[in-house]
Each structure stands twice: as C-alpha cells, then as structure tokens.
Design goal:
The structure holds 3 protein chains of 3 kinds. By secondary structure, chain A is α/β, with parallel strands linked by helices. Chain A contains 10 helices and 10 strands. In chain A, the strands form 2 sheets. A 6-stranded mixed β-sheet of chain A has the order 6-7-8-3-9-10, with helices on both faces. Chain B is an all-alpha fold. Helix content of chain B is 72%, strand content 2%. Chain B is built from 14 helices and 4 strands. In chain B, the strands form 2 sheets. In chain B, strands 1-4 form a two-stranded antiparallel sheet. A two-stranded antiparallel ribbon of chain B has the order 2-3. Classes of the chains: A alpha/beta, B mainly alpha, C mainly alpha.
C-alpha cells in the first residue's frame, strides 16, 4: 500500500500563506535581521523563538509593516506586501497582538472588540452623522459580532467594563478577541504568554488551538517554552537575526546549535 | 446603553428649551448679541473639540476656516449674485476642501509643531483677507452683505439670527453625536495615545490614522465655515479683523475650558467664555476707570490655569468628579 | 537714500530684531530642556522687561538701574510662575502644561493691559551718539546695543552650559531627568532656575530693544511665536542653531516687509516655518528626534 504524502512534507505543492525571502533589516550598522527566509503554511501554528535580542519582534514589526525592511521580499498568499501600509496589511488579512498590551483604555471591553470590526464595516462620517439606516444595521451587526467573540473568550460578563478593570491575563485575551474580530487569515501573536501563570498558559494553548482549528494560521513569537513545545507544529529559531534552526519541536530540542544559543535556558 | 440615550435626549430637550426661552426672558439686545456670539463660537469650537479630544490634534487654524466661510459667502453673494443659502453651502464646501488639502500637509506634525503650523494657517489667511484688496476689500472689508431669507421672510433682527444660529448648532450637535457614537467615533478614539488610544493597535486593525485626522480636520472646517457664513449674513459686513490671531485662540480656550472631546463642553465652554468676559468687562472699569484693550483675557488666562490645575478634563468633568469618579487616565 | 543704504538698513533692522527672536528662542530652549514644556509666556517676559524698565525710568530711576530692576523682578516672576503654574501639575501630560503656560501668557498680558493699557512706551537710546556711519550708511546705535547684548547673553549661556557645574547639571537634567536626580541634582529646583533664567534673559532682550521698537502690553505673543519658530529651526537644543534661526527669521522679515509689503511681515516667519518643517523635523541644525514631543 502506498502512503499518501503528508501535505506538510511537500510544501511546494501548496502556496504558503506567508513567505519571507532574504529578509534583511539593519539599523545603521546594526543588523537586526540577517537574510532570513522561511515559509508559513496555511493552517499551521508556526513558532518563532530565540534568545532576547534575536530580532523576533522586529520581524513581526516588519511583517506588519510598522517598519520597512532594508531588503528582501515578503509574500502573503503569493502576493507581495512589501510596500503596503500597516492598515492595508490588516485589510488583506493579517492581524496581530502586541507584546506590550495596546488596548484602548478610553473604550469599554466590547467597544475595543468592535473596533476590530472596522474593516468589516463601511459607514463613513457623513453616513453615520446622518444616521442612515445601513449604518444603524451595521452598528448592530458589529455589536453582535463583538459580543460573539467575547462569549467565545468567556469575557461576555465584562463587556461594558473598562479594559483596565480586567486582570492581566484576561486583558491579553481581550486583545486576541479584538484581533480575531477582523476575521484574519493569519494571526501574529507577540509573546501572548508573557506574564501568565502556568494555568493561564494552558488555557491560552487551548485557545490558540481552537483558533487554528477555525482555519486561521498562527505565527507565534514566544519565550515560554511550555506554550511553544505544546502547540507548535513547527518552530523556527533565531539568533542574532539569523535562522539557526527549523523543524518540529522535537527536532529543535535536540539541535546542538540551538541548545548552545540558549545556554542555560530550560526547555 | 439605554440610559445614555435617555440622558442624551433629555439634555437635548432641556438645551432646546433653554435656547428658545432665553430671548423671552432676556430683553437686552446686547445680551442677544452675546447669545449670537456664543452660538457662533460654540459651532467653531465643536469641531475643534472633536479634533482635540478624539484625534488628539491641536489646531489654531479654526479662524482661518471661519474666515474662508465668511469671505466666500460674502464674495459669492455680493460679486456673483449667488443665492445666500447656496453660497453658504459652497462656502462650507470650499472651507472643507481647503482643510483637506492643508490637512495633508499640516497633520503630519504633532504637538507644538502642529499648533504653530495651524497658527501659520490662521495668519496666512488673515494676510490674504487683508491684502487681497480686489477680492476681499482689504482691511476695510466688504459692507452690505445681503440678509438671509426663508420663504418670503427676510431675517433682519438680531433675534432672528440668534434662533437661526442656534438651530444650526442643534442640528450639527446631533450630527456630531451620531458620528461620535459610530464606528467613526471609535476609530477616532483609537488613534491617539494621549486620549487612551494606540496608534499601533489602530493601524493593525485597518484604521489609517492620517485618513481620520484629515477627516475630522475637514469636519471642523465645515462647521467653522458654516459659522462664518452665518456671521457675515447677520452682520452684513466682513472685515479681516474678525479672523485674526486672537480669534484663532478663542476656540482653543473654549475647548480647554469645556473639556476636550466633549460636545456639550464646547457649548458650555463658549457660554462661560463670553459670560465671564462680559462680567469682567463690566467689573474692571469700576475698579480702574479708563482701562483699554482686551483685558478680559486676564479672566480667560486665570480660568485656563485653574482648569488645568483642578479640572484638566474641563468643566464637563465636574459631574463625574462630584460622583467620585475622579481622575482616570491622564 | 541709495538702494544700498536701504538694503543695509533692512539688514541691520533684521539682525536687531532677529537677535531678539534668537534670545526668545534660547529662553524656550532653556525651559524645554529641563521641563519638556514649551513656555508660551516667554514672550511676556520680554514685554515685562521693556514695560517695567519704562515704568521705573519714568519714576526717575537711572536707566541702567531701571533695567536691572526690571530684569531681576521679571526673573523672580518667572520662578514664581514655575512654582504656581507648572510645578503643581508637573506630572500632567505635556499638553496640559503647555496650555497652562498659554493661560499664564494671556493672563500676564491681561494684567499689563489693565495696569498700563494699550499705550506704547519707550526708553531713551542707551548712548548719546544716536547714529553712526558704517560703510556709507547710517546705523542706529541702539542696534549695536541690541546685537551686542544678545551676543553677550549667548556667549555667557554657552559658557554656563559647557563649563560650570550648575550649567552641566542643567544639561544633565535635560538629557536624563531620572538619572540626574539620582545623582543628587534637584530637578524641581532646576525647573525654577530654568524659568528664572529664561525670564531674565527675555526681560533683558525686551528692555534693550525698547528704544528701537517701543514696547507695549501686546508685543508678547508675537515675540513668543517668532521665538518659538527660531527655537524649532535650531531643533530646540542647539544654541548656534537657534541663533541662526532667529537671525534668519529677522532678516527675512525685514527684507520682506521692506521690499514687498509691510502687511506680509507676520506671514514670512510662518511660511519659513512650514517650509522648514516639511523638510526636516528637527530644524535645519538640530536633532532630528526633536520633532517628536
């Protein structure tokens, strides 16, 4: 009997959802990202790890286009996004959370998520000012969609509270809910486990798996190895802006170069 | 949510009642004039409140758009014989259009630089109004601007313009409330860190901060332009001195007093602004006869200092403070 | 007067008023560097310097003594301003602080209007010579006083920041307030000193230019804006840049007003400002990061 080839073993057959080629970023003389290339496949959870200063958040900032790359190419669903503005990047289907929480403290919890529905609505200043019927419908839809996301994250009760009144772990969940409200194809999570307890990390892991099962590809930058090793399909290891390892969690754990880079860090 | 709506409707109803009743209670024509100025400046400041409170942008350029609205109305009605109402629409559109153009340049700046850049707008336009004699009549301005009429009825008395201006203000106020409660309002609130937003997060959600800053800038210019039109039809005269440097500062004072981002704040701020000024002007000559100049700015200056020290969120934050909500994010 | 003479007159006038703008700009820099606040009352310090000098002189005090008193009083007032308006809200966002200084500036102007009205006041020229010949044209001697005093102030300031302990403490506070305070430098006192210094310098500038251009209650805001623009051209942190900015502003203004039309006098500095900012956030000579507040 012939074995059907695992789709992960022939990535060339399917266009990767995200492809980074020869990515390069230099700040003056300091090279932050050094000729980095990798692919993210549709529906996988890809983790990017590395010691501090390895360039992980810089990488995210460049995928998001908060910062321009000094060189290289970046393709989303086969099309270059290298020249897009951050808002356009969000519009094509890439959402993101932040290492340092960026919640809107001047809005309630549900309103935060409703901002996530911005891309899925279109009432402009004139239309909303005149309260045209379609804007009223849109507003209701946005509210319902936002409440839906909150319910999924078990935040429904706090919908009308201030985000600052939530415990830290729940705030992080809120930020994920907001990002999900954009209905992205690719979700970038920047250290989602930072500051969480072991139990919260376990819940986070379940949440991320659920998101992936819903069809969203996840790119994860993380320090907490429990999360990475538990849920990642593949792992990429960066050190000083260069890729020093790529493979399944098991493969990475036995990679000598990776272990050396992390000298002293518990896996 | 429903409570907010009910308070909103109640406030609006109360507001309209007060506005309608005032001319019956207050007989002095001088005070009606004050009422007109409060209305005009509330209109000018309403847009600025949105600009400052939501988009986090300071602007001393409102007087420029006030002036553009005024002069375009004057020129169209006097030199081109255009119907005054049509002229008003065109004036507001032109004001908005100019704001769009200038906004693209100026709104790339932040903080103090933005403030001075918008001040530059004020002074540049003042210079245009004062020096372009053939178009604007120069320093002497243009007298004889036609009055407005509705149906067959021509508005001639101050009281007519008082009601007209406050009617416009009410409609624009409701429009503004609608914008603020919508996705646009949320987008505006999201883009400036100073107000509790986050530009990074907004961008990552598909919101382009620059686009919204320009839109709010244009909206405030529209409000100011309409105010300018109403002003010159009331006064039947337009002179550059009404759109000078100090005029650009009044809305800033009003919004700071009332509360940035607060729509009621713009109206309350305007009322307090003019009433205190009048009270001051009545009082000071008693203590020191023969005082000249615009010395009521002392009252404004002290008010600003006190508000910044004790009520940085403006007068509208008083109910919150009394209820014990105190200071939230700064 | 030949064209040459006219141009020279414009140049001298421009340099004179430009020096005042430069001093205003330096005042902004001093306060900003320590407190991160743009002090809009800076222009009023110049106004007070001029006005108080005329008041004392009119009471019969000798000229130099009048000016000295005016400068000292304004300097003390500057410190008072810091203590009452700035210090109590020093933790508030910068915007609130700047609005507070703006409130202070119009309050000062208002008080001046009430006490002294809108009249223009003047001081006699500092030397009896009146005018002198220079390269074939008549130069107002007071201009020399203005330029000379400004230069002196700039040099003293430079030496102060570079070579004295308090001056270096100043710069330390501006670069890193927390670090400086950990080293024992009291940043609150630095704030008061900054205000006092900026006020004193502003007052002196205001006094020295009064014989040439008169003084009145209302000159403050205009000076503040032009001073601020000069400061921006210098990136808010470079003395040389601010001086160049102020002089350039003054010269262009003088030529613009003289050659084109006096109505354009106020527009020119602002147009320059817009142009400069469009190309370089940090001004022509300053720090590119200074544009971010």
């Amino acid at each position: 009997m012939s074995r059907v080839a695992d789709s992960k073993e022939s990535p060339m057959d399917v266009t990767p959802i995200l492809e980074v080629r020869d990515f390069h970023k230099a700040f003056g003389g300091l090279v932050a990202i050094n000729r980095l290339s990798f692919k993210a496949n549709q529906g996988e959870i890809l983790a990017i790890i590395g010691p501090n200063g390895a360039g992980k958040t810089t990488l995210f900032n460049m995928i998001n286009r908060f910062q321009p790359a000094s060189g290289g190419e970046i393709l989303f669903e086969g099309k270059s996004i290298k020249e897009l503005s951050p808002a356009r990047v969000a519009a094509v289907g890439i959402a993101r959370t932040f290492q340092i929480l960026q919640l809107f403290s001047n809005m309630s919890v549900v309103e935060n998520v409703m901002v996530g529905r911005h891309l899925r609505s279109k009432g402009g200043m004139l239309a909303t000012g005149l309260r045209m019927p379609f804007t009223r419908r849109e507003e209701r839809n946005m509210f319902d969609a936002a409440m839906g996301k909150l319910t999924m994250m078990d935040l429904k009760k706090e919908a009308f509270s201030s985000p600052l009144s939530l415990p830290y772990g729940r705030q992080k969940t809120l930020e994920i809910a907001r990002a999900l409200a954009t209905e992205p194809k690719l979700l970038l999570l920047d250290e989602p486990a930072g500051g969480l307890s072991t139990q919260e990390i376990e819940q986070l892991a379940q949440l991320i798996k659920r998101i992936r099962d819903g069809g969203i590809t996840i790119l994860l930058v993380e320090h907490r190895m429990e999360l990475v090793m538990g849920i990642a399909d593949r792992v990429i290891v960066l050190n000083y802006g260069s890729k020093i390892g790529e493979g399944t969690p098991a493969e990475i754990q036995s990679n000598e170069e990776v272990i050396n880079a992390y000298l002293g860090v518990e896996f | 949510m429903e409570n907010v709506k009910r308070t909103r409707y109640a406030s609006l109803a109360l507001f309209m009642i007060i506005v309608i009743v005032i001319p019956f209670v207050v007989k002095s024509p001088y005070l009606i004039t004050i009422g007109i100025f409060i209305g005009l400046y509330a209109l000018i400041s309403l847009g600025l409140s949105l600009l400052m409170g939501y988009a986090g942008q300071v602007s001393m350029g409102q007087s420029a758009f006030y002036g553009i609205g005024a002069y375009v109305s004057a020129i169209l009605t006097m030199k081109c014989g255009v119907n005054p109402w049509l002229a008003m629409i065109l004036a507001a559109l032109f004001s908005t259009f100019m704001a769009g153009l200038l906004g693209m340049v100026v709104l790339r700046l932040e903080g103090h630089l933005l403030a001075v850049a918008t001040l530059a707008l004020c002074i540049v336009f003042y210079t245009i109004f004062a020096q372009w004699k053939s178009m604007t009549g120069g320093v002497d301005g243009m007298p004889g601007i036609p009055k407005l009429s509705i149906g067959g009825f021509t508005l001639t008395r101050d009281v007519h313009y008082y009601y007209l201006i406050w009617a416009f203000l009410t409609v624009i106020l409701i429009f503004s409330f609608n914008v603020v409660d919508s996705r646009v309002g949320r987008a505006l609130r999201s883009i400036h860190h100073f107000q509790g937003g986050s530009e990074m997060a907004a961008k990552s959600l598909g919101i382009s901060p620059m686009k919204y800053k320009i839109q709010v800038f244009m909206l405030s210019a529209a409000y100011a332009g309409i105010a300018g039109s109403l002003y010159v039809h009331w006064l039947s005269l337009v002179t550059p001195s009404s759109f000078g440097f100090l005029t650009s500062i009044y809305p800033l004072i009003i919004v700071s007093l009332g509360g940035q981002g607060s729509l009621w704040g713009a109206i309350i701020g305007a009322a307090v602004f003019f009433i205190v000024a009048e009270a001051f002007r009545a009082l000071v000559p008693i203590l020191k006869p023969g005082t000249s100049g615009e010395y009521e700015i002392l009252a404004w200056g002290l008010m600003i200092i006190l508000v910044m020290q004790f009520l940085p969120r403006g007068l509208v934050s008083i109910p919150d403070i009394l209820r014990g909500k105190g200071k939230t994010k700064g | 007067m030949s064209i040459y003479d006219q141009l020279l007159q414009f140049l001298i006038a421009g340099i004179s008023i430009g020096s005042i703008y430069a001093v205003m700009g330096l005042g902004f820099m001093i306060v900003y560097s320590v407190t991160r606040v743009i002090n809009f009352a800076q222009g009023e310090f110049a106004m007070l310097g001029g006005m108080l000098s005329t008041v004392f002189y009119a009471k019969g005090l000798p000229l130099s003594f009048s000016i000295l008193c005016a400068v000292l009083i304004t300097s003390a007032f500057g410190m008072f301003l810091h203590r009452t308006v700035i210090y109590p809200i020093r933790t508030a966002p910068v915007f609130t602080l700047v609005l507070a200084t703006f409130g202070a500036s119009i309050a000062i102007r208002g008080i001046s209007l009430i006490i002294w009205g809108t009249d223009f006041r003047i001081l006699p020229p500092f030397s009896k010579l009146g005018a002198m010949h220079l390269a074939g044209a008549m130069i107002n001697i007071q201009a020399v006083w203005v330029i000379g005093t400004t230069l002196l102030m700039a040099i003293v300031l430079f030496l102060f920041f570079e070579y004295t302990v308090p001056g270096k403490a100043f710069r330390a506070s501006s670069i890193n307030a927390l670090g400086a305070s950990l080293m024992g430098i009291k940043t609150e006192r630095m704030g008061a000193i900054a205000f006092g210094l900026a006020a004193g310098l502003g007052a002196l500038a205001g006094a020295v230019v009064t014989p040439m251009m008169t003084t009145s209650s209302e000159i403050g805001l205009g000076l503040a804006i032009k001073g601020f623009i000069s400061a921006i051209i210098g990136g808010l942190n470079r003395i040389e840049g601010i001086i160049v900015g102020g002089l350039a502003l003054g010269i262009l203004e003088a030529f613009g007003a003289g050659l084109i039309h006096s109505g354009f006098k106020d527009v020119i500095p602002l147009l320059i400002f817009l142009v400069v900012l469009n190309f370089r956030r940090g001004g022509l000579l300053g720090d590119p990061e200074a544009g971010k507040i």
